[in-house]
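Notebook, bench 3.
Goal today: get a predicted structure for Hydrolase from Streptomyces dioscori so we can plan the truncation constructs. The sequence was checked against the plasmid map this morning, with no discrepancies at the termini. Length recorded as 408 residues. Pasting the sequence as submitted so the record is complete.
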Amino acid sequence: MPRTLLRRATVTAVCAGLLWTAVPAHAGSASPVRPHPVPQSLWADRATAAYRSLQTHLYEGTDQHGLYLEHTPRQAADPAHSYLWPFREAAAAAVDMQELPGNGGDFRQDAAERFDTFELYFAGGDRPGYQSYLPAPLGSGGDVYYDDNAVVALSQLDQYESTGDRAFLRRAENVVPVVSRAWDGDTGKTCPGGMDWVDSPGNNIRATNVTALSAQLAARLYEHTHKRAYLEKAEQWYGWVSSCMRKAPGLYVNDRNDDGGTNETLWTYNSGAMIGTATALYRGTGRNSWLTKAVTDADASLAYWGQGTRLHDQPAVFNAFYFKDLLDLDAVRPNSAYRQAMSGYADSTYRTNRDTATGLFRFQPSNGGDYDPQAPAATLNQSAMVQIFATLAQSDRRGHGNGPKQAP
């Protein structure tokens, strides 16, 4: 994932505190706009408009291999094309657009192209994986970040469920050995276990996001394949986060250093990944204990994140993960509060963070918070808002794990 954001989240708990004070919530501004009821047809219109802005201002076209820019306008430090994580979010946006009622089919070709382009980021060798930046011949390559690989595979599962093409299921399965390398087997460390953030000898943290997102991947693969190895991995990885990183119900600290210290930063998507994992394990095993865990985390996390400007101040892309995981649970255990929270955030952000001239969303350097007219628009953030709007447009949104919508 973009290293400028997560580097700030993985230094020390003290520095992480500075992240929040450096960009105070609504400093000198009024409270967030009170949300208004929005019909699902309007969410579809907003999703379509936001997607068109993404494609107009950030998509580079087929003559540039179907890649995206990191920002518009391009910043001095930007690479030629986007890093893997923003590209993944653009792919996820296309998947959600193809699920729009009525005209979703118009976006199927876009989604198919995104998954072809994904493979430009993959590098083989002794330690294969999707690299953070394009390897040769299109770029200089990058490290294999395990969170990146987990979310790529989750998108591949989404595409499998949407199209029925088992090639995407196989691709997602091929990522499991990659993320499994991240497991730290050193029993001498405080709270042994957990998964490394990056495939590098210099890595010294075990990250909640990697471990929880990988657990979610394994749990969803178990639903589709019933391979016991996936169930065992999902339970092990979920168990470590629950035992070693839980601050309170539904809230999980960011990472644990190899020296035993923890970075106490809280992110919505870590809450979401644990909700999504428990929901998938409930669907896959039928055990009510997993449903109880999912509901407990969902309700407690929403009570926390729903206070004041906490959702507003989180990175938009983290909220996209979180809200989708809440609606995944809603599909098996309905609770109108989940969609209401998502709708309220989406409507407020549409009204306060959108550049009406371009349709692009602009945030603080943290990728969340108040509108900054001087900030460049980012593929990461624009794609997140497309996902949120498109998801809200789906009145009959199903949870994951129910098999592909089209026959293989």
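Residues 37-117+334-400 form one domain. Residues 233 and 368 are 33 Å apart (CA to CA).
Flagging this for group meeting.
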